Amino acid sequence: MPELPEVEVTRRGLTPFIQQKRITQIRYSGKKLRTAVPFGMIVQRLQGKKILKVERRAKYLLFISETGDTLIIHLGMTGKLGIFEPSAPLAVHDHLIFSLDSGMQMRFNDTRRFGSVTLLTNQQSQVMEETFFRTTGPEPFSPECSPEYLKKRAGKTSQAIKIFIMNSSIVAGVGNIYANESLYAAGIHPAAKASGLGLKRWQNLLTNIREILLWAIDCGGSTISDFLNASGQQGYFQANFKVYGRENQPCPACMELIKKETIGGRASYFCPSCQKR
DNA sequence: CAAGTTACCTGACGGC
DNA sequence: TGCCGTCAGGTAACTT
């Protein structure tokens, strides 16, 4: 499910239910996620503690406790975090349940278990940047993520532009859907060599990435099969897809049929006429 | 060392 | 109806 917009929509949806709330009890399915869940440590450090705020870095959600401990949750492909009444029946793939002193529960559900849950004890954000996020690239909205930065990182690489912008160590948060849509909006072919872009085209692409991510956040994210926000509602940005999932349908701009090709092992959709190498 | 491949896991869907 | 192969929003550990 989730790329940057869906994670950000989840963060915003959770915030009023989580901020300044105390965790009273934590339950765990016992299933291994992408990595082992440090459940004993999570109970020991977070039970009885208040969550001060929920932040986002790349596609990770950061729950910062009053003691400075930080719970980091990644939603993987099918992860969802939602707020429920305790009386609501549990779902099949609910893995973690946090009971709060508000009387509500936050539940982490993840069908494919590609998500991850990590606990960093007493971490300042500066320390996390140097450790947990040391290989994570800048946020796309940060001034650090400039056309000059991207062009410099692209260097002489032979990689396709689409693979390059989906690389989380280059820029955080751009996954397959928004890479496809941003490249379409910028008129750049997904197989174009990243090293071949001049500053002007990098500027254009970056602007489009930012605009599309913000637009998608405003739409509550994209629901392809199963993304739901913290209140269980679908996003509707998928109604604005111009190329993603639209193989053999007409390009909205020129009516040429959208093509689908595999680039870097991922489905890539583009208009062969509007998008230039 | 850059770049390509595989693995992690469940479920939906299409073809036969 | 059901079996089988393929594919899916992500990431990191592999191999080449």
Concise synopsis of the structure shown:
The chain has 277 residues and is of the alpha+beta class. 27% of the residues lie in helices and 22% in strands.
Task: Explain what the structure shows.
By secondary structure, the chain is of the alpha+beta class. The protein has 7 helices and 10 strands. The strands form 2 sheets. An 8-stranded antiparallel β-sheet has the order 5-7-6-1-2-3-4-8. A two-stranded antiparallel ribbon has the order 9-10. Helix 4 crosses helix 7. The chain starts with a helix and ends in a 7-residue tail after the last strand. The model has no long low-confidence stretch (mean pLDDT about 95).
Topology summary:
Layout: H1 4-18, E1 21-28, H2 39-46, E2 50-57, E3 60-65, E4 70-74, E5 79-84, E6 94-100, E7 105-110, E8 116-120, H3 125-130, H4 147-154, H5 161-166, H6 176-186, H7 199-218, E9 259-263, E10 266-270
Antiparallel strand pairs: 1-2, 1-6, 2-3, 3-4, 4-8, 5-7, 6-7, 9-10
The protein binds a DNA duplex (16 and 16 nucleotides) through α6.
N-C termini distance: 29 Å
How many β-strand stretches? 10
Q: Which structural class should the secondary elements be placed in?
A: alpha+beta
Count up the helices. 7
Q: What fraction of residues sit in β-strands?
A: 15-25%
SSE string, helices as H and strands as E: HEHEEEEEEEHHHHHEE
Oligomer: single chain
The parts where pLDDT drops under 50 for at least 5 residues are none
* Helix fraction by DSSP (H/I, runs of at least 4): 25-40%
Q: Return the average pLDDT rounded to an integer.
A: 95
Shape: globular
